[in-house]
Specification:
Helix content is 48%, strand content 11%. By secondary structure, it is mainly alpha-helical. The chain is elongated and about 55 Å long.
Length: 93
């Protein structure tokens, strides 16, 4: 079976549409991540088309998993309800 998001098909650099397909989000959402600087990308060519390096995308995904893991651990910790340690937010379990 051919996976449309396989690394062999996509190559080193991904378009916004390719990246959206990998992340299962819209191209508009990927563009917002790129414009905010959250997802590093480069502009290529005279028209300035955005490209995301596949390895950068993989690193971004890994970082999001780590952030999610840490947030989950924080929310389970005894310190989470302390406003002075949670940026004033009260996190309920």
């Amino acid at each position: 079976m051919n996976d449309p998001a396989s690394p062999d098909r996509l190559g080193r650099f991904l378009t916004l549409a390719d990246t959206a397909e990998v992340l299962n989000v819209s191209a508009r959402q990927v563009y917002a991540l790129v414009r905010s600087g959250e997802l590093p990308a480069i502009k290529v060519g005279a028209a300035g088309h955005w490209r995301i390096e596949r390895l950068v995308l993989e690193s971004y995904i890994d970082a999001m998993y780590e952030e999610s893991r840490r947030l989950s651990l924080w929310q389970q910790s005894d310190a989470a309800p302390l406003p002075e340690l949670s940026d004033g937010r009260i996190i309920r379990r």
